Each structure stands twice: as structure tokens, then as C-alpha cells.
């Protein structure tokens, strides 16, 4: 793999807003893309893993999920962001990051940019909105 990849849930408005922030504010060489448009087989990821948490697949084949993936993304970025990434990897911060990450994941539909669709399981989102996130004819 040539570049590291950060994978997020493209059907979630909150996640998409966060990914846009990354793309516009965090200088990284990693690809930032929704899992719905990623080649999961090439990345050795499953839909279940991507529904569970954001994913990092390093150019070296290393993998991380959730706040560990965010720390890896930040570590692959500009100097100030690398400091933030190192801080997130610091054991006490890492221990606190996982419960916070899980809370955000459960409540992302309530956060700025979130929508009701963010709280639905992937299967329900696809049934209502189709695989590309647009409402289906019968929804």
C-alpha cells in the first residue's frame, strides 16, 4: 500500500463533518475516505469493523481503530497535530479516550452536524436511504 488510509462512516453526517475538518485543517498524507467507497478487501477491513469505529490502515500494514486510529492520523500530520496524537497515545489519555469515543459513537446523531440517520445501524440506513445515503423510492 502506498499511503496510509483513515476510514470513517460516510453515511453519518457528524462523521462526514469530522472528515471534512480533517481534510481542510489537518495536513496529513493519509487518504481520508468513507468506508462505503473504500476497497475494504484491499484494506483488510470488514463492514462490521468500520461500523464499530473509524479505522486506520498504515502504509506499513499497521492497523488501529477508534481513538487509536485518530492518534495514528494525528501522528502522521503536521508538528502540532503530532503532539496531539502523542498525547492521545499517552496511557492515561488513551484509557479515557475509549469511553469518550464510545459515548460519541452512541450519541453522534445528537452532536453538531449529526442527523437521525447517524443513530441507525448500517442495514437500516441502507434500507431507508440506499447505499449512497439518498432516500429510496419506498422510504
Please write the string of helix (H) and strand (E) elements: EHEHHEEHHHH
The tally of helices reads: 7
In whole angstroms, the N-to-C terminal distance is 39 Å
DSSP strand (E) fraction? 5-15%
The biggest beta sheet reads: 4 strands, mixed
Topology, number of strands? 4
Rg over CA atoms: 15 Å
Q: Kindly state the percentage of residues in helix.
A: 40-55%
In total, the number of domains comes to 1
The average pLDDT is 85
Major sheet: order of its strands? 2-1-3-4
Computed structural class: alpha+beta
Overall 3D form? globular
Q: Pick out the low-confidence regions.
A: 132-139
Can you lay out the helices and strands and say which pair or pack?
Elements: E1 5-8, H1 13-25, E2 31-34, H2 40-43, H3 47-52, E3 55-57, E4 63-65, H4 66-75, H5 79-89, H6 91-107, H7 122-129
Parallel strand pairs: 1-2
Antiparallel strand pairs: 1-3, 3-4
Helix pairs in contact: 4-5
Protein name: Thiol-disulfide oxidoreductase DCC family protein
Pfam families: DCC1-like
Organism: Micromonospora rubida
Describe it for me?
Strand 1 (5-8), helix 1 and strand 2 form a beta-alpha-beta unit. The longest helix has 17 residues, at 91-107. It is built from seven helices and four strands, in the order E-H-E-H-H-E-E-H-H-H-H. The chain has one domain (5-129). The chain has a four-stranded mixed sheet with strand order 2-1-3-4. It is an alpha+beta fold. It is globular, with a radius of gyration of 15 Å. It has helices at residues 13-25, 40-43, 47-52, 66-75, 79-89, 91-107, 122-129; strands spanning 5-8, 31-34, 55-57, 63-65. Helix content is 50%, strand content 10%. InterPro entries: DCC1-like. It holds the Pfam family DCC1-like. This is Thiol-disulfide oxidoreductase DCC family protein.
